Amino acid sequence: MHMPRKIPGWPQPNVEYELAPDNYKAVNWLGKKLRETGGYIYFSSGEAEPELYSQLEDDFKWAKEQNDATIYVVAGPVMRIPYVPGLKKRQKGREYLNPVVRLAKEDKIQLYPADKRLSHTFMIFSDVKAANIEEPYAPGKKPKASKYIYNQWIEYAPFETLFSLATLWKSPVTNDFTDHFLFLTDGEIRELRKWATKRVKDVMKIDLKTCKEFWGEYLNGQT
C-alpha cells in the first residue's frame, strides 16, 4: 500500500471515512469551514436538503460578506422543501421554502441548475484543500457513507471536473426558479421514485424534462 510521504512543516494529506453520516457532524464541519474560508467554494448539493442548509444560511452569508468567498452551487433538478400547512400543489411560491434558493436570491451564492441529477453530492473548499464527498444516493434518501479529505487534491480533483462540466456554458439562476427546478416535499419525492420505477427511468440521473412529466401526471392523478 502506498503511503504519502510526510514532509516536516507541510500540511499532511488525510482522508477520513464515515459510515452512516449524520447531519450534526456535517453542519458543524461545513459551518466551521464557511466561517474560516474565503476563495472559491464548490457545492454539488443534490436536492439541497433543507434540514442541512437551513442551519448554514448565516455561515454562507458570513463566508460571502466577511471572507469575500465566491460560492458556486449546482443543484437539482429536484429541490426538496419542507411540508407546511396550506401548501398548494403548484410550483410558484414553493421556491421560498428552500434555503439554497433564498441564498441565491440574496446574492450570497451562485446557483446553477443541473441538466440532470449529478451522481455525487460534495463540498470543496479549494483555498484550504478540504472537501467532503458523499456516496451516491437516491432523491429523498441518505448517503450510506462519506469521506472528508484534507490536503489530498488528487482525491477530489475528479469532482471539481464534474462540477465544471455540469456548469459549462451556463449562467447562475437569479429569478424564475420554477423554470429550472421542481420543488417537492418528501411525500412527493417518494411518489417520484415510484413513478420512475414504473416507467424504468433512472431516478439517480433524472433530468428536468422527466421531472416535469412526473409533475404533470401527479397533478392529474395519473401516478
Describe what this molecule looks like in 3D:
The chain has 223 residues and is an alpha/beta fold. It has one domain (14-219): Endonuclease Chain A (Endonuclease, Chain A, 2-Layer Sandwich). The protein contains 7 helices and 9 strands, in the order E-H-E-H-H-E-E-H-E-E-E-E-H-E-H-H. It has helices spanning 23-36, 50-53, 57-65, 99-105, 153-167, 186-198, 208-219; strands at 14-19, 40-44, 70-75, 78-80, 110-113, 122-125, 130-134, 145-150, 182-184. The strands form 2 sheets. A 7-stranded mixed sheet has the order 1-8-7-6-2-3-5, with helices on both faces. The protein has a two-stranded parallel ribbon with strand order 4-9. A hairpin with a 4-residue loop joins strand 6 (122-125) and strand 7 (130-134). Residues 1-10 have low confidence and may be disordered.
Short synopsis of the structure:
33% of the residues lie in helices and 19% in strands. The protein is α/β, with parallel strands linked by helices and 223 residues long.
Structure keywords:
7-stranded mixed β-sheet; alpha/beta; 9 strands; disordered N terminus; 223 residues; Endonuclease, Chain A; two-stranded parallel ribbon
List the SSEs and their pairings.
Elements: E1 14-19, H1 23-36, E2 40-44, H2 50-53, H3 57-65, E3 70-75, E4 78-80, H4 99-105, E5 110-113, E6 122-125, E7 130-134, E8 145-150, H5 153-167, E9 182-184, H6 186-198, H7 208-219
Parallel strand pairs: 2-3, 3-5, 4-9
Antiparallel strand pairs: 1-8, 2-6, 6-7, 7-8
Helix pairs in contact: 1-3, 6-7
Mean pLDDT: 91
Looking at the structure, what is the overall shape? globular
What is the terminal-to-terminal distance?
51 Å
Oligomer: single chain
Q: Which homologous superfamily in CATH is the superfamily?
A: Endonuclease Chain A
Strand order, largest beta sheet: 1-8-7-6-2-3-5
Strand content: 15-25%
Count of helical regions: 7
Poorly predicted residue ranges: 1-10
- Biggest sheet layout: 7 strands, mixed
Count of extended strands = 9
Radius of gyration: 18 Å
Q: Which CATH first-tier class would you pick?
A: Alpha Beta
According to CATH, what is the topology? Endonuclease, Chain A
Share in helix: 25-40%
Helix/strand structural class: alpha/beta
Q: In the CATH hierarchy, what is the architecture at level 2?
A: 2-Layer Sandwich
Q: Number of domains in the coordinates? A: 1
